[in-house]
Design goal:
The protein has 388 residues and is of the alpha/beta class. It has 2 domains: 8-42 and 287-386, Aspartate Aminotransferase, domain 1, CATH 3.90.1150; 45-283, 3-Layer(aba) Sandwich (Aspartate Aminotransferase, domain 2), CATH 3.40.640.10. It has helices at residues 8-11, 17-25, 45-56, 69-83, 97-109, 126-132, 151-160, 184-196, 219-222, 251-265, 270-282, 286-306, 333-344, 370-385; strands at residues 32-33, 92-95, 114-120, 136-141, 165-172, 200-204, 227-232, 245-248, 311-312, 320-324, 346-347, 349-350, 361-365. It has a 7-stranded mixed sheet, with helices on both faces. Strands 9-10-13-12 form a 4-stranded antiparallel sheet. A two-stranded parallel ribbon has the order 1-11. Helix 4 (69-83) packs parallel to helix 11, helix 5 packs across helix 10 (251-265) and helix 7 (151-160) packs parallel to helix 8 (184-196). The longest helix has 21 residues, at 286-306. 49% of the residues are buried. Its cofactor is pyridoxal 5'-phosphate. Belongs to the class-I pyridoxal-phosphate-dependent aminotransferase family.
Length: 388
């Protein structure tokens, strides 16, 4: 019997740096927070009305574990149509956001001693979940390759760790924090390595509908038999608080992951599922208005920041700018963001919070109104200029 009062793996997990810094800066007077990845748009009215109707119709009972049948059917149809995929309703599990989808998926494929390859900088959630399930993580710094994991680098990393039992690789594209996405060619090259090495790919494509210059190409088109596709409504339909995500995958995997899912949460909130059904059937174009506005904000922020020396990764998707801190400022990203928050009253996230390759960078979320971004840009520029 161990000496620890609690699960030792849980004790080793820290509180999210992103959430903690957002909380820590909330009390600064007049702070403008460009910290969290949350759309500033409201959920579309037709979706809210569908949820109200579900309440009025007393849709307040448990749903089947994997979700109401009509929603699973609609989800398969929606993503098949949007991204040229080939899923059936039976290959869909409705989850409590993409977060639970990631947790259930990793729990389903990892055995103690398995290794998961995680390219960084990346939203860090995949790392603690892997470790809690007895797996280990190989972090791969992608900063020298334009913040994408190349097929060559993936093969190299696997070959450099011959004793690691590599079970899966994580992809997140368009990426949080960089906004960088992958071309079809890059994905097909990765898919070939993943197939040859008999790996799973946990492909988090929650931002797939928020792309600007490249049409999103899902790796599920190339290797559906090896792909665990994670998606949901938080970003595409401004539904973060509704907590609806989805897992789509091969049938043998879905038959197993639903066990993890049902033991985590039983099922997603029934009322939210009826709202999601409306989003999937009558909200296919809901993200277009948001995408157009995000594009304006992105272009504005890149232009303004470039004037004082920020160099940004190519943000082809999502709503983040991952920018190199100007040379005249502290290159320690924690020092920079704390000073910026206290002196200029603008809160952004340090790049180091996203793993190797992130120090010297900051993540700026432009999921805020243009008016807020204009004032934030003004303050940031004044702060940087005063460092000269």
């Amino acid at each position: 019997m161990g000496n620890s009062k609690f699960n030792e793996k849980i004790e080793q997990i820290g509180i999210s740096d992103i959430r903690q810094f957002d909380t820590d800066t909330s009390d600064i007077p007049g702070i403008i927070k460009l910290t969290l990845g949350e759309p500033d748009f409201n959920t579309p009215e037709h979706i809210k009305k569908a949820a109200i109707k579900a309440i009025e119709d007393n849709q307040s009972h448990y749903s089947p574990n994997a979700g109401i049948p009509a929603l699973r059917e609609a989800v398969a149809s929606y993503y098949n149509e949007k991204f040229d995929l080939n899923y059936t309703a039976e290959q869909v599990v409705t989850t409590v956001g993409a977060t639970e989808a990631i947790a259930a998926s990793l729990q389903t494929v990892i055995n103690p001693g398995d290794t998961v390859i995680v390219p960084t900088p990346i939203f860090p959630i995949y790392i603690p979940i892997t470790k809690v399930n007895g797996g280990s993580v190989i972090l791969v710094d992608t900063s020298d390759d334009g913040f994408v994991l190349t097929a060559k680098k993936l093969e190299q990393v696997i070959d450099e760790h011959p004793l690691a039992h590599v079970k899966a690789v994580v992809l997140n594209y368009p990426s949080n924090p960089t906004g960088v996405t992958y071309s079809r060619k890059q994905i097909e090259e990765l898919a070939e390595v993943i197939r040859e090495r008999d790996l799973w790919v946990i492909s988090d494509e929650i931002y797939a509908e928020l792309t600007y210059t490249k049409k999103h190409f899902s790796i599920a088109r190339a290797i559906p038999e090896r792909t665990i596709l994670i998606t949901g409504l938080s970003k595409s339909h401004a539904m973060t608080g509704w907590r609806i995500g989805y897992i789509l995958g091969p049938q043998d995997f879905v038959d197993q992951v639903v066990k993890s899912h049902q033991n985590f949460v039983t099922a997603s909130t029934t009322i939210s599922q009826f709202a999601a059904l409306e989003a999937m059937t009558n909200g296919k174009n809901d993200s277009k208005t948001m995408l157009k506005e995000y594009g304006k904000r992105r272009d504005f922020m890149i232009k303004e920041l470039a004037e004082v020396g920020f160099k940004a990764a190519s943000p082809d998707g999502a709503f983040y700018i991952f920018a190199k801190i100007p040379a005249n400022c502290s290159q320690d990203s924690w020092t920079f963001v704390r000073s910026l928050a206290n002196e200029a009253h603008v809160a952004i996230i340090p790049g180091v919070a996203f793993g190797p390759g992130g120090d010297g960078y900051v993540r700026i979320s432009y999921a805020s109104s243009l008016e807020k971004l204009q004032e934030a840009a003004k303050r940031i520029k004044e702060y940087v200029k005063n460092r000269k």
